[in-house]
Automatic annotation (TrEMBL):
Predominant localisation class: membrane
Lineage: Bacteria, Bacillati, Actinomycetota, Actinomycetes, Mycobacteriales
Protein name: Transporter, major facilitator family protein
GO MF annotation: an example: transmembrane transporter activity
UniProt xrefs under Gene3D superfamilies: MFS general substrate transporter like domains (1.20.1250.20)
Length: 435
C-alpha cells in the first residue's frame, strides 16, 4: 500500500513538475520565442498557472465519481491522463517549426495535466489514510505527500542529467524532450503498481451498504462551504512558497537574473527536494504525536523564517547558498504538508469525503500555487527587487497560519460510515452546525 501511493503519486508529480521546470528553462525560448524575453517568461509561467484553473474541474469530476464508483478507478484514469499528456509534450513542434499552433497545443496538453492533477491528489490521500490504523494516519498520509517531493527530485534530476548529456544549444534543440518521453514508460509502472492495490475499505463498506451519495459535490458545497474555503487557504499558505521551486521560478531566476549555470541549479533543486521529502515524512509522524493543528502551527512559523532567508541567500549568487536557501525553506514546507492528507481526510464525512478533499485541494492550489511564479516574475520585472516577492510569500504563510487556527483538531476521529454523525459536526472553532 505504501509503495503504491508513493510511486503512483511520484510519477504523476514528476510529469507536473517537469513541465514547470521546463517552463522557465526551455518553453520561454522554444514556444514563445517571438516575444521579448521578459514577456516570453511571463507567458511561459502563465501556462503553468493556467493548468491550476482546470484543477477544480478535475477535482469535481474525480470527487463525484470517486464517491460513487471508488477511489481506485479514478486514480487509474488520472494516471493515464497525466502520463499521455506529458509524453505528447515531448513530441510537440516548436514555434519556429509550427508557428502559433505550437504554444496552443502546449497549452491544451497543460490543461489535461491540470485536470488530471486535480483528480489525482484526493484519491491518493484517501487510499492511504483510509487504509491506515487510527494512530498512524499521519504517517500513512505522508506517503502520497512524499511522492510530491520525489516527483520534483526525479524531474529536476533527469533534467540535470540531460544538461550534462546535451550541453548548451543541444539541450534546447532536443535534450529537454527526453524527460517528457520517459513518462510513457512510467505510465505502465504506475498502472502495474496501482492495479495491485485494493479499494479503500471505507468506500468498500459504503458501497456494500448501498449508501453511495447521489450528488456528493453538491452536498459538500452546500453543507461545508466554509470548511472547504478555510481548508483551501491552509493549503494556499504552503503552496505559494512551494511553487517557487516546484513552479520553476527559482530555476529561472537563478539562471537568468543571477547568472548561475543551469546544471548546478537543477542539482541544488534536486537536493532540496530530498530535504523536503525528509521533513514531509517527519511532519506526518509528528502529527500523530502532537496533532495535525499543532504541527501546522509549527510549520507555518518555520516557513516564515525560511521565506525571510530565501532571497538574501539566493541573491548571493553562490550555488551553495542557493541550496542552503532552498533546504531551509523545505523545513516549513514539509511541516505544512506532511500531515495534510490526514488533516483533510478527517475534516469531511465519509459519504462526501473524496469530493470535500479534492475541491479543497484544487481551490487551495489556485489561491496559492497557480500564479505565484508569474506574480514573482512580474514583481521583479516591475520593481527590480525581490523584496515584494518576500512580502507576498510571508502574507500567504500568515493567511495559512490564521486559517489553521480556526480549525479544531480532529486527529484520530473515526472515518468509517458508522460514525457519519460524529464526522458531520463542524470542525471549525466558531461553528456548531453540522456539515
Amino acid at each position: 500500500m505504501a509503495a503504491a501511493t508513493i510511486i503512483g503519486t511520484a510519477i504523476e508529480w514528476y510529469d507536473f513538475f517537469l513541465y514547470a521546470a521546463a517552463a522557465g528553462l526551455v518553453f520561454n525560448k522554444v514556444f514563445f520565442a517571438s516575444s521579448e524575453p521578459a514577456i516570453a517568461t511571463l507567458l511561459s509561467f502563465l501556462t503553468v498557472g493556467l493548468s491550476f484553473l482546470f484543477r477544480p474541474l478535475g477535482a469535481f469530476l474525480a470527487g463525484h465519481f470517486g464517491d460513487r464508483i471508488g477511489r481506485r478507478k479514478v486514480l487509474m484514469i488520472t494516471l493515464f491522463g497525466m502520463g499521455i499528456a506529458t509524453t505528447l509534450i515531448g513530441v510537440l513542434p516548436t514555434y519556429a517549426a509550427a508557428g502559433i499552433i505550437a504554444p496552443l497545443l502546449l497549452i491544451f496538453l497543460r490543461i489535461i495535466q491540470g485536470i488530471s492533477a486535480g483528480g489525482e491528489w484526493g484519491g491518493a490521500v484517501l487510499m492511504a489514510v483510509e487504509h491506515a490504523p487510527e494512530n498512524r494516519r499521519g504517517l500513512f498520509g505522508a506517503f502520497p505527500q512524499i511522492g510530491v517531493p520525489i516527483g520534483l527530485l526525479m524531474s529536476s534530476g533527469v533534467l540535470a542529467v540531460m544538461t550534462m548529456i546535451t550541453p548548451g544549444e543541444q539541450f534546447l534543440q532536443w535534450g529537454w524532450r527526453v524527460p517528457f518521453l520517459l513518462s510513457f514508460i512510467l505510465i505502465f509502472v504506475g498502472h502495474y503498481i496501482r492495479h495491485r492495490v485494493a479499494e479503500s475499505p471505507v468506500f468498500a463498506e459504503i458501497s456494500a451498504r448501498k449508501e453511495v451519495a447521489s450528488n456528493p459535490i453538491g452536498a459538500v458545497l452546500k453543507r461545508s462551504f466554509s470548511v472547504v474555503l478555510l481548508a483551501a487557504i491552509v493549503f494556499a499558505g504552503n503552496g505559494a512558497s512551494g511553487y517557487m521551486t516546484a513552479g520553476g521560478f527559482i530555476q529561472k531566476y537563478a539562471t537568468g537574473n543571477m547568472g548561475l549555470e543551469r546544471g548546478p541549479v537543477l542539482w541544488a533543486v534536486t537536493g532540496s527536494a530530498a530535504t523536503w521529502l525528509v521533513f514531509t515524512l517527519l511532519a506526518g509522524i509528528v502529527s500523530d504525536k502532537i496533532g495535525r493543528r499543532n504541527t501546522y502551527i509549527l510549520g507555518f512559523i518555520a516557513q516564515i523564517v525560511g521565506i525571510a532567508a530565501l532571497f538574501p541567500l539566493v541573491n548571493a549568487g553562490d550555488i551553495t547558498k542557493l541550496f542552503l536557501a532552498l533546504a531551509l525553506l523545505t523545513v516549513g514546507l514539509g511541516f505544512t504538508y506532511g500531515q495534510q492528507s490526514a488533516f483533510y481526510t478527517e475534516l469531511f464525512p465519509a459519504s462526501m469525503r473524496f469530493s470535500g478533499v479534492s475541491v479543497s485541494y484544487a481551490i487551495g492550489a489556485i489561491l496559492g500555487g497557480a500564479f505565484s511564479p508569474m506574480i514573482a516574475a512580474w514583481v521583479i520585472e516591475k520593481t527590480g527587487s525581490t523584496s515584494g516577492v518576500t512580502y507576498y510569500l510571508i502574507a500567504m504563510a500568515v493567511a495559512g497560519l490564521v486559517a489553521i487556527c480556526l480549525f479544531k483538531d480532529r486527529t484520530g476521529i473515526p472515518l468509517g460510515p458508522d460514525h457519519e454523525a460524529e464526522q458531520a459536526v463542524s470542525p471549525l472553532v466558531f461553528a456548531r452546525e453540522r456539515q
